[in-house]
Amino acid sequence: xxxxxxxxxxxxxxxxxxxxxxxxxxxxxxxxxxxxxxxxxxxxxxxxxxxxxxxxxxxxxxxxxxxxxxxxxxxxxxxxxxxxxxxxxxxxxxxxxxxxxxxxxxxxxxxxxxxxxxxxxxxxxxxxxxxxxxxxxxxxxxxxxxxxxxxxxxxxxxxxxxxxxxxxxxxxxxxxxxxxxxxxxxxxxxxxxxxxxxxxxxxxxxxxxxxxxxxxxxxxxxxxxxxxxxxxxxxxxxxxxxxxxxxxxxxxxxxxxxxxxxxxxxxxxxxxxxxxxxxxxxxxxxxxxxxxxxxxxxxxxxxxxxxxxxxx
Length: 312
Hints:
The protein is an alpha+beta fold.
């Protein structure tokens, strides 16, 4: 085999959802940002019919390892395994092959797949969506179709996986629409991200959304939120006010207290949940004192805008 094509490597960005959580599932445009933190897939050809798949966390810890036969992948028979991750992986690969009949030619013989991460897989930055994007890049199929078939969701994270700037995403009538934007907040040195020490399950979180509560007025206000956040990001006081209003709207739609009221009532800056409420990361505003507030409270993962957000 030609050595030049025997090994290929792909990358996909992690993400943060800034506005429109839950409502993005129902024709409400959302502001999202791709991250400098990626997941990678390296494919190396083998001379047999075995498929070896290894996934490593950010600290090089091997957290998933499986070997299957190529015929298993090609088969239409139901695949069963005690490891649910292996089952999902087979589903993703088989679906990609259905979406692109030429995928089996791309796969060829057996192969070694190695996945590596820049971020902790428990962070909720998009381990599943980056997997989907990587497989779609490799097997040349529609990443959105692959995502919707295998995981559901709105697809904003798929848009972030290959974007190089912030974007406004709209899952309009099940048709993904992406508008790339140049967003570099003047107040970004006062914006940071804190991990809540708890992984949030996206599917459980989505179930909380009560669509019937999304009135026409709230829909319009949420649809304006991407631009309100962008316009307010030159003034910290304005930015904090928009965060507070957005949190209150989503709270009314899912029946949960905003995280600032629930966990950080004495916090002096503003706090916004990112994505599903109850876990993963929050976006916070403040200075050194506010950063120390979280660190002294046991929240050790505090990330700066310039360190993680892709773009200028």
